[in-house]
From TrEMBL:
Name this polypeptide is given: Cupin type-1 domain-containing protein
PANTHER family from the UniProt entry: GERMIN-LIKE PROTEIN SUBFAMILY 3 MEMBER 3
InterPro entries with a match to the protein in the record: Cupin_1, RmlC-like_jellyroll, RmlC_Cupin_sf
Species the sequence originates in: Vanilla planifolia
Cupin type-1 domain mapped to chain residues: 1-59
Amino acid sequence: MVFPRGLLHYQINAGGNNAVAIVSFSSPSPGLQITSFALFGNNISTPVIEKVTFLDAPQIIKLKKVLGGSG
């Protein structure tokens, strides 16, 4: 799999067996993206975040207020 820089992603092993992943970065210092700020600290609309997470709208709005997001 190839993930573009800055794209939030996750992986889940849906099978019943152990899984192995080989990871490679494009540079020796690939950086860090903190998911809570990436989801709630910007202007992504609340309905979109509801579809991506298991949170309801009041919880998302509360987190956006704490982390400085809007929308």
